[in-house]
Amino acid sequence: MKPPETEGTQRQMKRRILIVDDEPAMRLALARVLSGLGYRVDQAENGEEALALIDGAQTEPPFYDLLLTDIRMPRMSGIELIQELRANRIFLPIIAMSALPEKKLLEKLLGNGCSDYVVKPFEVEDLLQRIERVAIKTEKAKKKITGAHRPANGSV
What we know:
It is built from six helices and five strands, in the order H-E-H-E-H-E-H-E-H-E-H. The protein is an alpha/beta fold. Helix 3 runs parallel beside helix 4.
């Protein structure tokens, strides 16, 4: 007999996260932690691989709910990935990760529509709190958009 799921677990089960990092150990550790908490997790080792996965998810749901990406990677950096997504009008919530806490980098990320930023090494609990904050913010924005398109009388 399975224990009853909590509301938080049910919410997490619905979330699909793409982890992009060129360091296999970091990618695998994050994937293990997040999938152990009920998230559906996919992985890519660079921006090009991530774009292919995101493109596939756009045509064949389920879509990604969050992109967790390293900034410094070979082939296509996290910044280039974010810029490519925005240029293609893919507005996916993004949390960037970097070992370099540079103010100019942070400003560039936030200016390109990044939802949050975490400096490596980081505490897993801190990352989980950031993921939850971004998810709540995204859900509120979706509700606001959906509500704005409904007629006042509630009919469809």
